[in-house]
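Problem 12. The chain below contains 364 residues. Write out its predicted structure in token notation.
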Amino acid sequence: MKMDSNKVETIFQSRVVETDNLSRALEKIAETSDFNGLYILTDTNVLREVIPYFDDFLNKYNPEIIVMNAGEENKSLQTLAEIWERLSDSEATRRSIMINIGGGVVTDLGGFAAATFKRGIRFFNVPTTVLGAVDAAVGGKTGIDFNGFKNEIGAFAPAEKVIISSQPLASLPYSQIISGYAEIVKTALISSAEFYTELIRDCPVNDNAKLREAMTKAVRVKERVTEEDPKESGLRKILNLGHTAGHAFETLMIEKGTPIAHGDAVAHGLLVTLILSHTLRGLDSKEIYRYADGILKPLYKRIAVSCKDYDRLEQLMLHDKKNITAGEIRFVLLDGIGSPVINIPVPSEELRAALDIYCDTLGL
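Solution.
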């Protein structure tokens, strides 16, 4: 499953738009699209911090702006119905366009609203967070939370275009930047040794222009993977690298009353994954320490994990929704940087040994 990094760089330039002028990018979309209704979905935070970047576009085209309350708890059936109602009341048609401007909640919810209104209207995503750009805005997964479960209702529906810009990054706290950055690192690990080495050699988290470039590379990798496997039947599973252990760390920290960001949990999950890749697939052990010393330790806080947590962590991994075989933990691992392999069974003793090495490496 090794990916050609040169193809990754070029294949989706027509879908992924990289820009430093968000207003002009949206103007170009409007100029080249045949539509009879223009809508923007955003949330209360983005309305205050980011929407002013679009003043020229707003003044020229006067789109209808639909504002939802910020926060995961609003990714709901009620909010979805409110969006449908606004579209219906303003007589939107199948030739209307929706532009989703925000983080993952906005792009997930807005994409699903557009995909289902009148059996589908075109939509564009403008992610305003690093995590939203790399993880949620591309790939065609849309949906809402329902009945206590995240993304329980949804549909596969890709955005017409995804616009990546460094402009919104200026309003993000550092904690959100490094949380999203973990997904960029993950993408480099599955796609390109060169990309990964660049991230270690010249970490872009404090340089918005370089961070935008890294985001765009990661988005194009994901776009290529999801185009080849739109319904997650095979290749797309490589995007789960680090997430089996990461989700377990995330839930464990919530249970301990010390929650951590999703991306931070994935960053720690990647170290466990690299350890297992060494013990089960022969990955060079230097990659464990290159990651720990070059990325994890400098950027991410230690988390309170010890051998007393192993039983719970294993239980959580056994119930991870991305494991396809009941009673057996399966990981995405690496044969080498840029060479992921899926569905690798990890016996309990190997997992616990990897967790021991994880704790030793971080001095826990």
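Discussion. The longest strand covers residues 149-156. Students who got a different answer should revisit the alignment rule from Section 12.3.
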